[in-house]
Dihydrofolate reductase (Marinicella litoralis), 163 residues
Amino acid sequence: MKNITLIAAMDTNGLIGKNNRLPWHLPVDLNFFKQQTLGKTILMGRKTCESLPFPLPNRRNIVLSRNKVFSKPGFDIINNIDNKILDDEVMVIGGSTLYELLMPQASHMILTRIDHEFEGDTYFPNVDWELWQNTRTTRLPISDQNPEYNIAFEFYQRIEQTT
């Protein structure tokens, strides 16, 4: 199985978006996201792609879209998940439909938890936590470098199922 990692930031209610944008601007989380995804293949849905002004640098940007005529310079557009197209490691960066589609195949999740309730319209899909083990959590309290909210960076690995 390929190494598929879902990476997302969410508030205390699982909110991940508002009007096709992040409901917050947190440089510490953006830097964390960059560290985790640099040099890797990132996979996103069309709406997430449309929210970006340009491809994220130093990453292979792949967009999964049912729209067969959609194109955007610098992005590789695919209409279905073809294992030959995807590298050994793929970071799924959103949106919610793609997270839900690939959750059953994902081997890892990296979740930024923001200790605040925001308003928005898009949520991370429900997770069956019995299938996931937290392997590491880094807590970042409010400080000069993180002046707004308490944040936790959580790493999860799918629990191997034995039959």
